[in-house]
């Protein structure tokens, strides 16, 4: 690990501390799936691709939170960058595609100058 990324070092982290984010993520995904199923029974329905995208994004996030699953030696620079790609680039795409509402709803109503 380089001196620049010393803040990312996880020395001394026990199994319980490392597992808490994964448990919270699993609870979040379970809640999303239950609510998506409830919405699918409504007349307007629910697009199953949203659920697929959200669960895929959450799975990528879980992979990024577990450095031991990386295809590179643990603690190496490629393994660290693999985590950055999963957590910062690929997982958010799935999570955003699985959100409710129209993607343009977050845009301002009036044009910006």
Structural account:
The chain is an all-alpha fold and 113 residues long. The chain has one domain. The chain is 58% helix and 0% strand. The protein contains 3 helices and no strands. Helix 1 runs antiparallel to helix 2 and helix 2 runs antiparallel to helix 3. The longest helix is centred in the first third of the chain and has 26 residues. The protein is globular, with a radius of gyration of 18 Å. The N and C termini lie far apart (44 Å). 8% of the residues are buried.
Defining key terms:
113 residues, single chain, mainly alpha
Could you give a short account of the major beta sheet? Answer: none
Oligomer: single chain
Bulk shape: globular
Tally of helical runs: 3
Mean pLDDT across all amino acids: 82
The tally of strands reads 0
Task: Tell me the radius of gyration.
Answer: 18 Å
* Gap from first CA to last CA: 44 Å
Structural class: mainly alpha
Low-pLDDT residue intervals, each spanning 5 or more residues = none
Q: From N to C, what is the helix and strand string?
A: HHH
